[in-house]
């Protein structure tokens, strides 16, 4: 068994603080989605993944179960799998089992307790695998642990997390990933497809209220870590599909006029005013190809489910894209 290695960085906290203050000063007000994932938020998201309304997790797992062998054939032997935003790191298990002699697994996440736990679990499950966990925001340039020189570097980015980035941010992230894996590397990408807005609405407004709790937990974290003075009961969860932008938006909405502070910043809210906490873009093939090309990738193949709700795609680098933009 290979013991996991945590590479900590002060840049995680510094970046989060900058984004929180800048987002709350902006119009419209926003918060970074990474703020969701303290220990309680990570546990709530795991619960969301098992809700009947939340289709992405089980649908993607269905695709991986059916096509892990196909992906393994595309990836080839001696792969080093790098998973930015690894979370519970459950989906990667299907890929690791299917691969021919994978030699390394590098999960990267901001939730330290969860990261330590799941990296130890993967090390026990795959004793021949080098497991090296990196604590950090996957959007930052975090040095990776040493990897064997003959390993094919492949990024595994499931869960439709690419949808949480604005298209220009997604292209920038993909360019960074291309630099990490090199010209012979690859990318396994989970992509949530456009579909009936009623399905999308239900997925982000579950009857049990778990997603609402997940969203409102952001205020609890602001109060604990950023000297916030929010009254959680004075806000409510709001999520809807913005068809023009092809994205779900999650907001925290003030139920009455109020004020709050975050560190040195004083905030006033009218009734109905919101803080946008997340976007989740839903892709058709044209949008996907455009973002991939802007990020220096070519979409080789996309596997889907029986309902055509989700994709797991294989992408390869295509070279320099410094002149390409969305």
Automatic annotation (TrEMBL):
| GO BP: any one term | methylation
The protein in question is named: L-histidine N(Alpha)-methyltransferase
The answer to whether the entry has keyword Transferase is yes
Q: Which InterPro entries match?
A: EgtD (IPR035094), EgtD_Methyltrsf_superfamily (IPR051128), MeTrfase_dom (IPR019257), MeTrfase_EgtD-like (IPR017804), SAM-dependent_MTases_sf (IPR029063)
Q: Which GO terms describe its molecular function?
A: L-histidine N(alpha)-methyltransferase activity
| Organism annotation | Gemmatimonas groenlandica
Q: Does the keyword Ion transport apply?
A: no
Write the Enzyme Commission number(s) for this entry: 2.1.1.44
Tell me which PANTHER family the record gives.
ERGOTHIONEINE BIOSYNTHESIS PROTEIN 1
- Give the Histidine-specific methyltransferase SAM-dependent domain ranges: 17-315
Write the record's keywords in alphabetical order, separated by commas.
Methyltransferase, Transferase
**Any matching Pfam family:** Methyltransf_33
EC class of the enzyme, as a word: transferase
Query: Its domain of life?
Result: Bacteria
